[in-house]
Automatic annotation (TrEMBL):
Domain Phospholipase/carboxylesterase/thioesterase: 16-213
UniProt similarity note: Belongs to the AB hydrolase superfamily. AB hydrolase 2 family.
UniProt entry keywords in alphabetical sequence: Hydrolase
Record-given protein name: Phospholipase/carboxylesterase
Pfam family membership, one: Abhydrolase_2
Ranges in a coiled coil: none
Ribonucleoprotein keyword on record: no
Highest taxon of the lineage: Bacteria
Length: 231
């Protein structure tokens, strides 16, 4: 689907569109992937939830896009900070537009790899836009510490994280540092190391996250809107 929004996306509507506002799930793919990578698993999530899957803005090649470039090293990836900042700004504008146009009851982000890192970047900078994050094999990138205005909103914020014990791209210590930083901010995190998935994900992880999302949607009160500029 091509729109005037800053990111190309695909989506599905609620199976029961009766005018009632419903939670919206936004799927964020990883490096060298595209919007269908997670969207093809949309059937694992509540059919009454509309789903949107945007494409990262930076093209690598046919069917391959990125949120930011990175260099692989022995201790983990070193990212291109400026690319990440530009992509984050585009993603924030996209989420603001989707919120204003569709007026969902809540917005939840689910990201894999770089998509997980982007979801966590939104959490750390604009938590007012979202109501929960599912992160699979992503991590908080450098220079995305919570701003003072965002920090108070992080207390009790729900985050679901699964990370491969044998992850060769984002080593486990990086995931543990992300977990510990989120806990320092008072985030309510459901964290688990998962064996034998490397840097990938499984349908079982997505199914578990689907139940977690339904539980959070039933209990979480939508946060007040804060249109402060991205810091």
């Amino acid at each position: 689907m091509t729109t005037s929004l800053p990111l190309h996306y695909v989506g599905r509507d609620s199976s029961n569109p009766n005018g009632e506002a419903r939670p919206l799930l936004v799927l964020l793919h990883g490096f060298a992937s595209y919007e269908q990578h997670l969207f093809r698993h949309a059937g694992l999530f509540d059919p009454q939830w509309p789903i949107i899957a945007p494409r990262a803005p930076l093209r690598i090649g046919p069917g391959a896009y990125r949120w930011f470039y990175f260099t692989r090293t022995a201790t983990g990836p070193i990212i291109e900070t400026e690319e990440q900042h530009v992509s984050l700004r585009l993603l924030v504008v996209f989420l603001e537009a989707i919120r204003d146009q569709r007026k969902p009851r809540q917005i939840f982000l689910l990201g894999h790899s770089q998509g997980g890192s982007m979801a966590l970047s939104v959490l750390m900078t604009r938590p007012d836009l979202i109501d929960g994050v599912v992160n699979v094999n992503g991590r908080i990138v450098p220079n995305n510490a919570a701003s003072p205005s965002a920090d108070s909103r992080l207390r009790g914020f729900p985050v679901f994280t699964r990370h491969g014990e044998d992850n060769p791209i984002v080593p486990l210590p990086m995931a543990h540092r992300t977990r510990d930083l989120l806990m320092q901010h008072g985030v309510s995190i459901d964290y688990r190391d998962v064996p034998n998935i490397g840097h990938g994900f499984t349908p079982e992880i997505l199914a578990d996250s689907s139940q977690w999302l339904k539980d959070r949607a039933e209990t979480r009160t939508a946060q007040p809107v804060n249109d402060a500029p991205l810091r």
